[in-house]
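Human: We require from you a standard protein entry with sequence in single-letter code and fold as tokens, and nothing else.

Assistant:
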Amino acid sequence: MPPRLARKPPDTYHHGDLRDALVQAALQEAEQGGPEAISLKALAKKLGVSQPAPYRHFADREALLEAVTAEAFRQFTAVLREAIGKPSKQSKLSRFAQAALAFGLRRNGIYRLMFASRAKACAQKGGELHNAALDTFSLLLEALEAPAVGLLRERQALKIWAGLHGVVMLAEQGLLNGQVAKISREELVEDIVRESKLALSVAIKAAEATRV
């Protein structure tokens, strides 16, 4: 009778599996405590591997943060893409904005990892994180449903990002309850959407008129 093959212990990983396991575990930590909660040492202990093991895949904590933030952007983009792809009477931009607001409030630790840490600012152009963030921004441009006239769409998209980010962060800090203006966060975002679409439409018409 041939000898039975020994099973791989549950706390070990094939080459390459550990990288993904570290990213997923770090996402879970960020979910609870934001980017500050991510520690290579703590993750190694959580996954049951030696302390040096994570460094075979990530040079340092910053390299891990970049990979984790890239994965966060991919998940964020997937949520937004699903939202704007559903049949609805709402505009694509409205669905995009409301989905972004819901994501930011529900998964604030992940949101802060993407937009309130230095990971994105330090990302190398053309790298994994840079490209993942560009995919999200490209989806916003698509949601605007407007022709490309100069950089008008890009400028308006940045204004929308700034407005959405402000709503999410102020709400998360308890500084935005809407009582003074008697408006909900969702209604405020809808105002941003409506005003942005109008401003972009006016700017495009003005730009096209100068060409005549």
Remarks:
- The chain has a mean pLDDT of 90.
- The first helix runs from residue 17 to 33.
